[in-house]
Amino acid sequence: MAEIHLVFGAQGAGKSTYARTLATEIGGTRFSIDEWMAQLYGPDLPVPINLGWIIERVQRCEHQIWRIAEQIAKNGGCVVLDLGFTKARNRSAFIELARDAGIPSKLHYVSAPHEIRRSRVMTRNHEKGETFSFEVTPAMFEYMEAEFEAPTEFELASATVFNSHVPAA
Question: What is the dihedral of CA 155, 131, 125, 168, to 10 degrees?
Answer without folding.
Answer: 70
